[in-house]
Amino acid sequence: MSSADVTVVVVGSCMTDLVSQAPRLPKAGETVHGHKFFIGFGGKGANQCVQASRLGAKTAMVCKLGQDVFGNNYLQNFKDQGVTTDFVSQTGEAATGAASIIVNDQGENAIVIVAGANLLLDVEDLKKASLAISTARVLVCQLEITPAVSLQALKMARNSGVRTIFNPAPAAAELDPEFYSSSDVFCCNESEAELLTGFEVTDEEMAGKAAVVLLSRGCHSVIVTLGVKGCLMVSVQDATPKHIPVGSVPAVDTTGAGDSFVGALAFFMAHVPDLPLEEMARRSNQIAAVSVQAAGTQTSYPSRDALPHELFEAGSQ
Ligand SMILES: Nc1ncnc2c1ncn2[C@@H]1O[C@H](COP(=O)(O)OP(=O)(O)OP(=O)(O)O)[C@@H](O)[C@H]1O
Ligand SMILES: *[C@@H]1O[C@H](CO)[C@@H](O)[C@H](O)[C@H]1NC(C)=O
Known about the structure:
alpha/beta, nine-stranded mixed beta sheet, globular, binds adenosine-5'-triphosphate, binds 2-acetamido-2-deoxy-beta-D-glucopyranose, ATP binding
């Protein structure tokens, strides 16, 4: 696949998750013995890209890794997932982004994230990817890289008529107003909606009110994901909040469900663009609901083959 065929470009982060399970979290200076250790591929940008790729989008990732074993392994992971790596670079100046996670037997955790190489992704890297960014169907950004770089990517896409999804995660209270005007779909969760609006988003009604405020800041549509309750949306065409429920499923591990949702949405916007956004959100709910039924982050994301074919049809279900 050449980068000219790419339909979904994600400009964002990669993190290696180093997960230790222990009876309890250690105190300062203490060593505890754990009973399980595993390494996983994470980072919001990479997660969203991998989900879109698994559904059949021709994806490219624009990101920065370290020149280390984690960076090398991540590069191979992208190749294994069918993601174009022409715009994945490795730097000797910083380590690959890493999240050291300790989980105790009660399921509580303590996490240290070192963004490392992610923060060295810069506007020069975007220039190298400018052909792919300007000819894609959808561009996706988050906030785990330098915010100015995310904003520049959104603007580059916008200027070429490419549809944009912005996921303001992790949440920041202050967001450059241009993030709103550069977003076709502004997709956040309840805590992000709360931080951005100052509203206490405790229920659907408050989430709807927050969504209307976010919409008024200049994006074309706003989706707020609501966990087990699905999501809600508003758009310039219809600013009345519309709740889109998700079916009840046995949830095992909800880590990365939000990224599965965003990746699925990118797939639908790129490959079934004539669907109403409400229908895309309904189908993205269904895909994210599959992801919560298996352990892990990227490992829990369903592929096209594992999903009902109706999810990929052009008409509404
Ligand atoms: N228990 C669940 N049952 C069914 N679907 C779920 C469940 N939890 C999450 N989902 C699906 O995943 C989507 C995203 O979930 P959520 O709003 O919790 O995102 P998030 O907080 O960004 O997730 P995370 O931080 O865990 O990645 C929801 O809109 C829904 O479609
Ligand atoms: C929303 O996403 C943030 C990451 O930006 C996460 O820390 C938080 O727990 C999520 N909130 C909910 C309600 O799931």
